[in-house]
Amino acid sequence: MKGSFYITTAIAYTSGKPHIGNTYEAILTDSIARFRRAEGYDVFFQTGTDEHGQKIEEKAAAAGKTPQEFVDGVAAEIKRIWDLCGVSYDNFIRTTDLSHERQVQKIFRKLYEQGDIYKGSYEGWYCTPCESFWTESQLKDGKCPDCGRPVTKSREEAYFFRMSKYADRLIKYYEEHPEFIAPVSRKNEMINNFLKPGLQDLCVSRSSFKWGIPVDFDDKHVVYVWLDALTNYITGIGYDADGNSGEKFNKYWPAVHIVGKDIIRFHTIYWPIFLMALGLPLPEKVYGHPWLLQDGGKMSKSKGNVIYADDLVSLFGKDAVRYYVLTAMPFDNDGLISWQMVIDKINSDLANVFGNLVSRTAAMVNKYFGGKAHYTGAADGVDEELKNVAAGTFKRVQKKMDEYRISEAIEEIFSLFRRSNKYIDETTPWLLARDEGKKARLETVLYNLCESILIGVSVLSPFMPETCEKAAAIFGKKIKPFDGLNEFDKTEVFEVNSAPEILFARIDAEKTMEKIEKMEEPVKEKAPESSQKAEEKPAKAEIGIEDFAKVQLKIATVIACEKVEKSKKLLKLTVKVGNETRTVVSGIAGAYEPEYLVGKKLTMVTNLKPVKLCGILSEGMILCAEEESGKLSFLSPERDVADGSEIF
Predict the structure, then answer these.
(1) Among the residues of 191-316, which ranges form H helices?
(2) Other C-beta atoms within 10 Å of 435: how many?
(3) Cα separation, 618 vs 158, whole angstroms
(4) pLDDT over 80 (residue 114)
(5) Is 559 exposed, middle or buried (0-12, 13-18, 19+ CB in 10 A)?
(6) What is the pTM of this model?
(7) Taking the CA of residue 67 as centre, how many other CA atoms within 13 Å lie in the half-sphere pointing to its CB?
(8) What is the spatial distance between Cα 639 and Cα 619, in angstroms, rounded to a whole number?
(9) Cys bridge to 335: 43, 328, 404, 643, which one at CB 3.0-4.6 A?
(10) pLDDT at 536
(11) Which residues, 6 or more positions from 128, have their beta carbon under 8 angstroms from its beta carbon?
């Protein structure tokens, strides 16, 4: 055993059923936990639910339930979805658990008695959905700067935590532990936007509602959300504020926290300061993952653009859903999801690359050798590249996992599968089979494919556990331990199932979309008449190659983006084209949020005559595809091509 490893998700708020964007975090964290277990770590994985607050109290009243009845129902639904998606947690904590509530009361009292918490009063603007107070200057257009919703004026007696007391100490910790926050852009944001301007003392109790953990020495107050919710990470493993923490806490703390980028401030400022005040080590790492967006915007029930994990699983299966969300999300940029994108990804990667490789290989072993494949030693130079790719896959994946680059780690595995498919084309087993004198060579080719597949599915198993077990079983094997994945030719014989299961069949997109439309009908509003199918645009006149050659197209990277004032359609993009920086005004505001485009690589016309739009000089044009519905999609290179690269 390599040692202990404690990992957590942020606990899910029990205001309603979680959508796939919320569920992504649980799947992401699960994949890391499974990978660390396979590496030999003693892993403890905690997730759970955040169940207190004014928002819950109001939702329960609207539903005609007590707050406890309301959160019991939602917590059960969250747990059901986590289980459905194969989330292998060791503890599912609820902030209404009696053991948690008792420790929160002890923690509050301890911080009060040592002078970190004091009693005062608060007057400001309160956002109920975010459970946050804001000053006048912090509001954005008179609304909550985090969620954009309306706020209400509020004044009440409250207890406060002295945040500024620990600010300098926290900045020093950042400097001494550069790996503490990932990606690094999140750390810069915390320092520049919150710590350097000066931390305000934090409200840690409320007296205007009752649904919370009571302050045991002042029954007018309940503990405010962040001191209650964040402490779950230590109360769930046996922390005791009286100094009698259990063996589990001493064994596993500190943790790695996987949280959404929208709450990283609370986990990298408030939470470390609470821990400093308690005299406890700070978390090992906080990874603020990006969002999974639909149609270029954040999923929201009010927008009607929500996709749920259980609907996805019912149509595509658990592991296909896991694969999509884990590969669709880059390390530090938001990912996209739509029903069509999921179908396309399953067909291109899981059916064409992975499933097809397994099916072809199994079929050939059955056809040519009665289901058995040995290594005969009849090697060829083309074998070495495949063997090197296969034997090096685990180390490449491990390096990516150490950096929490999950999508890149999985891409390394699929590079092995693609190389294996290429190996089939290079060795042409069907031609070898025609020559009895090449039978030994044919068997070695098929053995090499079986071995590559077994290595690949063994490394892939933390991400797609059930599918990988099935794939290994097709070849008569179990998932290989990680410590045996750096070598090739170590399997004595493969015994292929005579009737192997098809792992992923191609999805009929048209029929599946019809099912999805029927599934969504009860919640779908009638489309406005203006959304009817647009008339086809007439084809443009033919041009010669000399006309096309006049247009200069290059790859550009968006380094900044903002909405153009007084325009609903225009965005102002600052783009890098090689060594040059330009400003481009583009009419894509209806399709994309500005922050989503930052870091994206786009296709740009660079020799278009500059023109002023809304007073801004636009020095180029961004290319987009427009569907019949009017939906826009920018054109991006298939691979990570350097900005400034010319398109021809």
Answers:
(1) 225-230, 232-235, 247-252, 264-265, 271-278, 309-316
(2) 10
(3) 51
(4) yes
(5) middle
(6) 0.78
(7) 16
(8) 25
(9) 328
(10) 44
(11) 54, 55, 58, 152
**Residues whose CB is less than 8 angstroms from the CB of residue 613 and which lie 6 or more positions away in sequence, other chains included:** 564, 570, 585
C-alpha count within 13 angstroms, C-beta hemisphere, residue 574: 6
Token pair of 500 as six digits: 């192997």
Please name the residue that has the structure tokens 């969300």: 325
Phi first, then psi: give them for residue 625, nearest 5 degrees: -100, 140
Residue in the structure block whose two tokens are 């929490």: 404
pLDDT score of 78:
97
Q: How many residues does the chain have?
A: 648
Half-sphere exposure of residue 572: CA atoms within 13 angstroms, side-chain side: 14
Confidence class of residue 537 from pLDDT cuts 50, 70 and 90?
very low
| pLDDT recorded at residue 531 | 34
Return the CA Rg of the chain. Answer: 28
Closest CA to 296 of 604, 584, 594: 594
Higher pLDDT, 125 or 81: 81
Q: How far apart are the first and last CA of the chain?
A: 54
Res 300: pLDDT: 57
Measured CA to CA in angstroms, residue 595 lies from 44, 546, 560, 573, 605 at distances of 35, 38, 8, 11, 22
Identify the pLDDT of residue 304: 54
- What value does the mean pLDDT take over residues 450-461? 98
Number of C-beta neighbours around residue 509 at 10 A: 14
301 Cβ partners below 8 Å, 6+ apart? Answer: 16, 19
Q: Are 241 and 134 in contact (CB under 8 A)?
A: no
Label residue 527 by pLDDT band (50, 70, 90).
very low
Residue type, 29: T
